[in-house]
Specification:
175 residues, mainly alpha, 7 helices, rod-shaped
């Protein structure tokens, strides 16, 4: 019986030694070479993906925090009675945020200057922070706070407390 020579591919699959060399030596070498050649591209692709996901997370996080701050501030103002008269007046189903703003007097620059000098960073303070500091102000400063608050945010808690403090204090002697 004469044996015909087998094609190279079949011989490799039949020879266990060659098969073992392929699996244990040549395949890992091929993988290592491919990884080394493609590594910079894989790194760049991974970096782009992570940066994209982080960017999306930052945007969503900022949105959620800002929305939460507005909601908490609104609820706190409602709780403390600082909402505008339209928002407090009714729950008639209309969205108060769509209602046209009430006409307010133009901000008084003199009042703004007095308030800025008496209460640093007034515009960044919450109503409860302002109310706590009103007791340290004199009558002229309290009236300036009333004028400034009425022309800007119109927070009822601040306006009412300033009224109370002005009523409690004796009137200045006539000059």
């Amino acid at each position: 019986m004469s044996e015909e020579p087998l094609p190279e591919g079949e011989r490799a699959t039949r020879n266990p030694l060659r098969r073992t060399l392929d699996l244990c030596v040549f395949a890992p070498v091929g993988v290592a070479v491919t990884v080394v050649e493609d590594l910079p591209e894989l790194i760049a692709k991974g970096r782009r993906r992570v940066e994209l996901e982080l960017g999306n997370a930052r945007v969503v996080g900022r949105f959620v925090v800002h929305k939460g701050q507005r909601e908490v501030s609104g609820r706190l103002d409602e709780f403390l009675g600082n909402g505008s008269d339209e928002a407090i007046a009714g729950d008639d189903g209309a969205d108060a945020s769509v209602a046209p703003p009430a006409a307010r007097p133009a901000p008084d620059p003199a009042a703004a200057a007095i308030v800025g000098g008496a209460l640093a960073d007034y515009d960044t303070l919450s109503a409860s922070q302002v109310v706590r500091r009103l007791e340290s102000l004199g009558p002229d400063e309290l009236r300036a706070v009333q004028r400034y608050e009425a022309s800007t945010r119109n927070r009822r808690t601040i306006l009412n407390r300033a009224d109370q403090l002005l009523d409690e204090r004796p009137a200045p002697p006539p000059s």
